[in-house]
Amino acid sequence: MSPRITAYLRDHCPVCASDMSQPKSLINHLKTQHQMVLPARKAGQNRPRDPAYEFSKDQADCQVERLACPSCWKHFSEPHELEHHFQVHLNNQDDSNMSEASQYPDEYEEYDEEAAISSNGSKGSKEDEKDAQYLEKSNELFSTLDELIAGFKKLLPYDYTNEKKSNK
Asked: Which DSSP string corresponds to the chain?
């Protein structure tokens, strides 16, 4: 058994070459800046063990950098591969085939570019489109709410608390 390669995963936008701090930020960026609505991974799930890579959060300790998909567990070496993978997510409305890697971590496979190219992106029904529009609007509202909360936090003094200060 060969040793695994130590890799650092970047949350990278292949469209404008921006790096984000976390997957959720990349999903919000893609939605607001590039009108690409990708699904988020299920909360509370850790990245499955990869047979080829050992992942590290410290970039200095890593042998290679990989570009992580914020919607599933796949990762790529080139931005154009990640961008093509995003299109696969966008074409698969139910996104069920992308979550299989998280359900079966022992059967984790590398990205198969030929299979992705040959997959047909058929459009969903009107009901699916309505669900997608509802989800998009909901995500926009939550993103706006997050931005408002962050703005209000910046307005508060650094040592602010909800308790009244007593004069001694």
From this structure: -PPPEEEEEEEE-TTT--EESSHHHHHHHHHHHH---PPPPPTT-PPPPPSSEEE-S-GGG-SEEEEEPSSSS-EESSHHHHHHHHHHHHH-TT-GGGTHHHH-GGG-----HHHHHHS------HHHHHHHHHHHHHHHHHHHHHHHHHHHHHHS-TT--SSPPPP-
Average pLDDT, 10 consecutive residues per value, the chain (168 residues): 87 94 94 92 87 91 94 94 92 54 43 40 59 77 79 71 53
Region for residue 95 given its phi and psi (left: phi exceeds 0; alpha: psi -120 to 50; beta: otherwise)? left
**Rounded to an integer, what distance in angstroms lies between the CA atom of residue 131 and that of residue 110?**
30
pTM: 0.54
Separation between Cα atoms, residue 20 and residue 5, nearest integer Å: 23
